[in-house]
Amino acid sequence: MIEPTTGQPCAATVIFNLPEYRVLSAALTAFGVRRITVESTGVPGCPACGVVSARVKDRRLQRLRDVPLAGAVVVLWRKRRWFCDEPACPRGSFTEATDEVPRRARSTRRLLHALVDAVIRSGRAALEAARAHGVSWWLAQTALDAAAATLPDVDLLAPKRLGIDEHRYRSVRWYRADEASPWVRVEPWMTTIVDLDTGQVLGIVDGRDSTGVGDWLFARPLAWRLGVEVVAIDPSAAFRKALRMWLPRTAVSVDAFHLVQLANQAVTEARQRLSQEIKGRRGRAVDPGWANRRLLLRGAETLSGRGRARLRAVFESDDPTGQLQAAWEAKEQLRTLLASGALEEARDHLRILEGLVEAAPTVETKRLLRTVKRWWNEIEVLITTGATTAKVEANNTAIKNIKRTGRGFRNPDNYRSRILLRSAAQTAA
Ligand SMILES: [Zn+2]
């Protein structure tokens, strides 16, 4: 049965295809289990002195976890113990180890790679990947942890443009310390820091206040921080204030998407307020404004002829004060402003926005204009650099998938490492 180590490997060895091993036997047990016995073909070097050994001391069978091969297989390694014949070496004997199965390992490296691949690249849940490979969730998670430990050091990267954005990493929970205490709403937020040029997630920190991000940035080397030219954030005053402290020489850009969201919010709030003031009730399906509430939030340039006609009908029939139309026009003017190609153009659009709000000053339009003016420096950085948090948002979509496949992470560390691994894999691809 044992083939010579030179020349062509036997058919079973070729099919089994485990580097540094050859198949000694392949048998079907009484229970219908396929059992494959392998032996290492590598040169056994003593781990203490490195001298190659030629004398076998003893052999024993070790069970190996391996990838399924056309179904489940039981793999046994006939592992040898060798004498070290180097007289100066304190070690009398040693057990062989291979790259596929390092010392103390019980799984082949190709199995661990397959598990990490299934979870990170194919986006399967760790438990699902484990089941498909006939191993425990624990082993899959250990493989993921080991992969996370080899992630490239963030401090060795030199990102020029960062994006910072928050997301909720699981649903809201209610919590109370004991029977007597009141229930507290717990919103598990995490903040993601992304390299805007590569899209790679550099860090994930707890919470969405400025402390977590501040600590993370402070942990980076000074040269790293000085190398950052632009940071894109959503309009959060806390972040902006804190960024001035952490990255004083870095320009801050505000994300256009989040500003448009604020403008959409102004339209919706105006619609709801007007319904209460004029009709004394909330909007209903019979109200053109309510029926077309989503159309009101669409970008004007994406509207079809029919959509434009419907919108015109809303303003004619369901907007006696003209305030809904004013909010809509302010929203569209802000969108035009944010799409400016140059600062001069943006400043002209700001003057038009000011004119619109002056002509129809409502609670909502005045507040929107105030926000725009408060964030004007950051808007100018946005128009000059084009740095938006869109890449962070894209990652957040990927993160949502991770959350869904993970079916709720109880352990935030597992969650974090999954995101970093996936992002690193995508960046490398
Ligand atoms: Zn030795």
TrEMBL record:
Domain of life of the organism encoding this protein: Bacteria
Domain Transposase IS204/IS1001/IS1096/IS1165 zinc-finger: 44-89
Pfam families xrefs: DDE_Tnp_ISL3, Zn_ribbon_ISL3
Domain Transposase IS204/IS1001/IS1096/IS1165 DDE, chain residue ranges per copy: 189-419
Classification via InterPro entries: Transpos_ISL3, Transposase_DDE, Transposase_Znf
NCBIfam families linked: transpos_ISL3
Name of the molecule in the record: ISL3 family transposase
Protein species of origin: Sinomonas terrae
